Amino acid sequence: MTKINEEQVRKAVNALLKWKKLHSKKTDNLNSLSEEEETEVLDDNFIYLQLTLKKIPPKELTNPHKITLFHPIQSFSNICLIIDDRPKKPHNSKTKLNVETVQKKLKSLEIPITKVLKFTKLKAEYKSFEAKQVLYGSYELFLADKRVANLLPGVLGKQFYKKKRKVPVPVDLRRDSNWKEEIERVFSSTLLCLGSGTCSVLKVGRNGMESGEVMENVLGAIEGIVEFVPKKMGGVRAFHLKFSDSLALPVYEVLPDQRKNTEKKNVLKVGRGGMESAEVMENVLAAIEGIVEFVPKKLGGVRAFHLKFSDSLALSIYEALPDQRENTEKKKK
């Protein structure tokens, strides 16, 4: 596997934590916010690892994947477990799980599950948008028997899967599996949801953690992620770190035409330390407008714009994904 530059990761983590400390907002006034607004604010405290692939992943890889972290980033007190209560054979009810049996086993294993919900009941009683909304807001974490995990998007809908905050995490609940180990692993994991595009994000840290802990989580997460990526690291175009409201800082990046060495980098000065941020912003926008006048195909010939000091990380302000450019070229043809 291509080695990740640990110093690059350390710089990105430290820069993000420093930025968050200087730009913290709303968190001192949570009492004045609604429950939904409070959740939004607290979610802003998570550090996300953004994965960009070279190609859209095959459909069979888009199921959620657990990525183990060295340092847990959140705890849960309200958990719903969705079980597969469908009979394995027609008219054979003895082969299916039932709520009472599952609850007894969870209690004997001292696994803190708040609600056990049958898959058949979920399908029958949570059809309306309002019912799904109530269910969504009732629990902090959803677990699901992996035998029904691929059926849940059609049952739960966009409420659960659009923002990916409460996507049910698949667990192995077969008789011979270790239920306690399976479920406890979720508490120290983050969820990777490869989507229908080339970009995915997952939580790897949160504001308030030690930078060294976040760094270890990032490196461990990258190692876990590439196990699910076609061609492993060869299928990855970039990894970035970010808060939900910050710029994305690169920790690993491969230029799409790096081997051919056909892409050119050019730099020009647009500001300096001590200037007002608005002045620099106006310079940047004007510079971009002027630059594209000299570029073949205008903005269509640009792969990316970044901002940086000579000794800093480069912050992405515009980036055209490779598959986007390929689609544009195909349409033109």
TrEMBL record:
Cell inner membrane among keywords: no
Annotated compartments: Nucleus, Nucleolus
GO molecular function, one term: RNA binding
Top-level taxon in the UniProt lineage: Eukaryota
UniProt entry tagged with the keyword tRNA processing: no
GO cellular component terms, semicolon-separated: nucleolus
CDD domains: Ribosomal_L1
Alphabetical UniProt keywords: Acetylation, Coiled coil, Isopeptide bond, Nucleus, Phosphoprotein, Ubl conjugation
Function (record text): Regulates cellular senescence through inhibition of PTEN translation. Acts as a pro-apoptotic regulator in response to DNA damage.
Family: Belongs to the universal ribosomal protein uL1 family. Highly divergent.
The protein's name: Ribosomal L1 domain-containing protein 1
